[in-house]
User: What shape does this take?
Amino acid sequence: MDRQRTPRPRFCPQVETLEDRCCPSVSVLFGNTLVVTGDANANTVVINDAGNGSVSASIDGSAPVGGTAIKNVIVNTKGGDDSVTYNLNGTATSRLNLAIDLGAFQDTAANKNSATFDFHGNTISSPYLNIGVLGTKGTDTVTATLGAITDSYVTLVAYLGDGNDTFDATVNGNIDGYGLAIAAFGGNGTDTLGTHINGDIAPGTYVGVLLDGGAGDDPITFDYTGQVNGTLYFAALGGAGNDTINANITANSGSTGAIAAAVAGGDNDDNLTLKVNTTSGDTVKVNALLDGGAGTDTGTHTSNVISNAENDTVV
Assistant: This one.
């Protein structure tokens, strides 16, 4: 006798996507690393550094969490319109690595983020201070105001990514011993990049600044005023687009060091200025180049600058 089998229902396992339930948090790892994690919403992060290893952070108004021997601070704000503020509240004597991700892999072009570094006029005299910022596809603004630097290696690097971004760094104070490096990379979009240094560079001290606009019509500004007895390196790269670059370097009387400066417009029609002002009789060495690149470029420069711009003016 034939029996008809009743087919059994088939079980198909499925995975249901849940909403992101990650909560903003601040934690300390290994006693020396402060970790701040945001979420998909708008986050506000505040970091306070006493300068001696005592560092704390809060997110969205939470109670501060920190430690007394912090050497690393890692911030990932993830999605949303986020802001990060770092305050140096005393002389920096303890080394610190500060890494900030404003949501490079979560944000869209609609997001707006900011990172602010305020040293409140305090001197940096730690063995080193390294600051790195990773921007997003949106609009990012990075602002830094530093004081004097003594016997310290200081680096500030920002990769801003796509979008119309702003980078502005100011140093008010002498730089004495070891060195300072500042670099900003604009990526695609109309990026506004600027660095301003007011202070002497001591013998044996190196200062380097690189401002790279990337693709887009980028305004780039660099100003230096002080006595150059060490070495000052500066380069501005416009990249593709109609860029405007203004670089003004003034080596005060008594300078005995060296200046190497380059302004490169890249493709398209650029408006470029490179002025290196020195005092007659000083022994400071100057090597400076203004390179228009492809396109019809306008160059304005002092007589100690080599230029190949199509529309060239010596001032």
